[in-house]
Design a protein that fits this description.
It is a single chain. This protein has 560 residues and is α+β, with helices and mostly antiparallel strands. It is 21% helix and 38% strand. Strands 2, 3, 4, 5, 6, 7, 8, 9, 10, 11, 12, 13 and 14 form a 13-stranded mixed β-sheet that branches. A nine-stranded antiparallel β-sheet has the order 1-25-24-23-22-29-20-17-16. Strands 15, 18, 19, 21, 26, 27, 28 and 30 form an eight-stranded antiparallel β-sheet that branches. It is globular. About 13% of the residues have low confidence.
Length: 560
């Protein structure tokens, strides 16, 4: 069969075919058995890829402790085969019988849906993700968080409760639309999307029309916004409000019912001792300029570090993506040279890296996106480290760095959909391990003997779009595995005798995806990272905790 006909088949499946080509393909399917067979094979491929991507507990997935594909038992394989054939028959009926519906809808650019077989199970709505919070930390400069608060990062969603810091400036966006610029020492009690109690600190509140009615509580009074901007200062003995632009109403306390206009001020508690110097508290525009300058300075520090790191003889490969130009090659700047460069394939996107617009990151949001590498040789240990932005964990397994065939000595580094980081090395790819899977609720066969070293969850949906530094150490000689988050040890494991392997290899591999798990087959698991990577380093050594902490400190952007 010619390539043009195959192209028409896949256009029909993904509903991008033109009306004229649709007519031609329909005629071919009705008259040519070879085309009909080719179409059914393509439908089976399409359905399998859909299964892999949308239903995690299928074939080609890792076991609970595995990074290689798990093969369901004979009974589940038979059920799957029946399901594929049923789906294929429905799609064939769509092509042959649905021509009239297509013609009816072509004037409106409508592609008809395939008919649903009577016995097909109806899809159930996926469980909707939920989170709790009232505001977002937009920016933080030189903030020293108090013990009762978490060490919040820029972009974090702030829940109800105390937000306290000793020094620095924080900019907080409430979901109602109000923005607070808070100067430490400060202590706030966040109560809702529309209200906050100021227990200590200097605050500039900017309230646009959509957030009119936003309330700042202080000294048993409520400051209710009726305009655009006001300032509040609270100490142990004093509380004062000044209207910078617009109008507020005071409720409660001795000034209950008082309206204040631009330039007006009131002491809510005690007598004001300090001069009215609100002009010293930054505006949002000033904080934005300060943020850009700080990012530039951090980027310059990292570039100097990256230049020196490239000479480390322990490096297997180093991809400082953040500083590289927009081309299809990702340069390996380690001494191992250009033979280990990465090649961008497919719809890899480019976006601002962790240092903002001056730096670059690679996005792997679509299944075909990947960076291919070839790293030949034998190694004694591994240390992997990268900066990663996670937008979502929409697949069962989401790739960071994956050896192609997952053969003896090859690594797999990925993140599970529950936020757990997985690192593993194949020990014996000739074995098949059979065990009961809770996910499959049946016996499965694991392709190859290995152990996955699995952390506690490091990500949840409230952290979507944020940058993290991850590191994994695999040290056979010391019989030790370690994993790190933002320079801190997450967990360590002993390598048991049955999972010990002395010689490590990588070979052909991919960053941000896993494209060729079986080299003689077109099938592949959908594991592209829905997010971005802007630096990746691989060492032929087991870096210690101090070295990993230093790499994180030298490379962290503003807000960490």
């Amino acid at each position: 069969m010619d390539q043009k006909t195959r192209h028409l088949i896949f256009q029909a499946i993904d509903q991008s075919i033109s009306p004229e080509d649709f007519e031609r393909l329909q005629d071919l399917i009705e008259t040519d058995p070879e085309v009909r067979a080719e179409y059914l094979q393509a439908v089976r491929l399409c359905e399998t890829l859909h299964d892999i991507g949308m239903e995690p507990a299928r074939a080609n997935q890792d076991s609970v402790v595995a990074a290689a594909p798990a093969v369901p038992s004979t009974e589940s394989r038979l059920s799957r085969a029946i399901r594929i054939l049923q789906w294929s028959a429905v799609c064939l009926a769509y092509i042959v019988v649905g021509a009239a519906a297509f013609r009816a809808g072509q004037n409106n650019n409508v592609i008809p849906e395939a008919p649903v077989a009577e016995n097909d199970p109806q899809p159930t709505a996926p469980r909707e993700a939920q989170m709790a919070g009232h505001a977002t930390l937009r920016r933080a400069f030189d903030v020293d968080w108090q013990d009762e608060s978490s060490s919040w990062r820029e972009g974090d969603i702030l829940p109800s409760g105390i937000l306290a810091f000793d020094t620095g400036v924080a900019e907080i966006d409430f979901f109602c639309g109000a923005t607070l610029i808070v100067e430490g020492p400060a202590r706030l009690d966040i109560q809702s999307d529309w209200s906050v109690t100021a227990l200590e600190g200097r605050i500039r509140a900017n309230v646009p029309p959509a957030a009119r009615g936003f309330i700042v509580k202080a000294a048993e009074s409520e400051i209710v916004d009726l305009g655009t901007e006001f300032a509040v200062e609270v100490t142990a003995d004093n509380a004062h409000v000044t209207v910078l632009n617009g109008e507020v109403e005071l409720r409660g306390g001795e000034h209950n019912g008082t309206h204040l206009l631009t330039g007006d001020g009131r002491s809510l508690k005690g007598e004001r001792q300090l001069p009215n110097n609100w002009q010293t508290l930054s505006t949002s525009a000033e904080l934005e300029a300060r943020h850009r300058q700080a990012q530039t300075e951090h980027f310059d520090v990292w570039r100097s570090f990256a230049d020196s790191l490239g000479s480390d003889e322990r490096l297997i490969a180093y991809y400082p993506i953040a500083s590289q130009a927009a081309d299809r090659t990702i340069a390996n700047t380690a001494a191992s040279g250009t033979a280990r460069d990465g090649q961008i394939l497919g719809p890899v996107g480019r976006s601002a890296g962790r240092f903002g617009p001056e730096s670059t990151a690679l996005e792997f949001a679509r299944p075909g996106s990947r960076v291919r590498t070839m790293i030949e040789g034998e190694f004694e240990a591994y240390t992997f480290a990268c900066w990663v932005r996670i937008d979502s964990l929409k697949h069962r397994y989401n790739a960071l760095f994956m050896g192609d065939g997952y053969e003896n000595g090859e690594p797999h580094w990925q993140i599970r959909d529950d936020g757990r980081v997985m690192f593993s090395v194949m020990v014996d790819d000739t074995q098949e391990i059979e065990y009961f899977s809770e996910e499959e609720q049946g016996m499965v066969i694991d392709a190859g003997k290995h152990r996955v070293y699995l952390t506690e969850p490091i990500w949840e949906s409230s952290e979507s779009g944020q940058w993290f530094h991850l590191a994994a150490v695999y040290h056979p000689a010391a019989r030790e595995v370690r994993q790190y988050l933002n320079g801190e040890l997450l967990r360590s494991w002993d390598i048991k005798d049955e999972f010990f392997i002395e010689t490590l290899r990588i070979g052909p591999a991919e960053i941000g995806n896993w494209g060729q798990p079986f080299r003689d087959s077109p099938w592949f698991a959908v594991r592209n990272l829905d997010g971005a990577i802007d630096e990746l380093m691989i060492f032929n050594a087991a870096l210690n905790s101090e070295e990993i902490k230093s790499i994180y400190e030298q490379g962290r952007p503003v807000g960490f």
